[in-house]
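For reproducibility, we list the full input for the iron/sulfur cluster complex.
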Amino acid sequence: MTDEKQTTYRIGPIRPPSEANSLLLQITEGCTWNRCKFCELYKHEGFKAFPVESIKRDIDVMAEYAEIASEYQREDGSWNKKAALEKLNHMTREEQNCYYLVYRWLAHGGENVFLQDGNSLAVKTERVLEILQYLRERLPSIKRVTTYGRAETLSKISADQYKELKAAGLDRIHSGFESGSDRVLELINKGVTSEQEITAGKHIREAGVELSVYFMPGIGGKTLSGENALETARVVSEINPDFVRIRTAVIKEGTGLWQDYLNGSYQLCSDNDKLTEIKLLIENTKNCTGLLASDHIINLLQEIQGSFDTDRQKMLSIIDEYFSMPEFRQKIFQLARRSGMVTRPSDLELLPTERLEKLARLAGSISEEAVWDRKINDMMFGYI
Ligand code: SF4
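The corresponding predicted structure, in tokenized form, follows.
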């Protein structure tokens, strides 16, 4: 590697869990809004869109690393990982990160790319088209390109523009709707209305681009808990997105909602409130053929996933089974789950007796509901 030649590319901080093995191409930095009261992701950054030419240079570096790494793929498709990673010994730390990301991407099929960061479609459509075309040309193994977008931004893009983006190779858009309730959206200062969510969703779906929206059970606090679920079901029913992904609300210290909690204007939802919201969402979503996905460890019952169309009963029975446990057992499960000891309620049977007794002692020591809800909320800080 010489000094003059670019040997690294930008890598942004976020991607959806479903893009864990995707190549990350950063076309923007930060978020255009940056004011949601639960989010501290870009608190110290403004929004920046990188020049197309510099993004193309990043793609060139990726293509070059792909070429180098590909030499270590055997004829049967397997990889000589040891030899491929020996290259790392001759690289700087930044080069290592970039090369390793490309190697890992190729070893997972080299098919998916995620365009970072928080609101990439705020960039003019023509620029995104140019980037997509270049990306697909330089890395022809790509089968799927996805990105994040704020509903407010997405609502300003027409169905025809989405069709152009689709034709150029944009396959899926992730959007953190969080809620379909206008009162909740206002409470969390999302800067978006449910009407904008519906407009955005309809345009995207009309163009044949896949849509993955995120729902946050519990984000409306106790007061708006039922409304959060019912209004989200209304929005989902109108749009019929391909995916509704559950992201259980966690109110973190330092955020605006945490301040509201401290001054008493916002009450934390319990794990059971959040599960009830998921139940309401499933029961009240109509005419949706998409999938409810639960791909994050902060969700209490991660096995609640399936088609809104064909798996409704199966998903509801998982929730009913949980609620059929004695309340004290539910609390023990919450503690065990939030401590990373178990995945599902039946896993409690596998825990050693002493550990169960310890959990029971802790559960028994907190009787006040609000103190318990705070305890469970705080236990989730480490997961987000
Ligand atoms: S739109 Fe997304 S990234 Fe931006 S502040 Fe809100 S939650 Fe954070």
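The two ends are 37 Å apart (CA to CA). The CA atoms of residues 151 and 191 lie 9 Å apart. Both points were considered when choosing residues for closer inspection.
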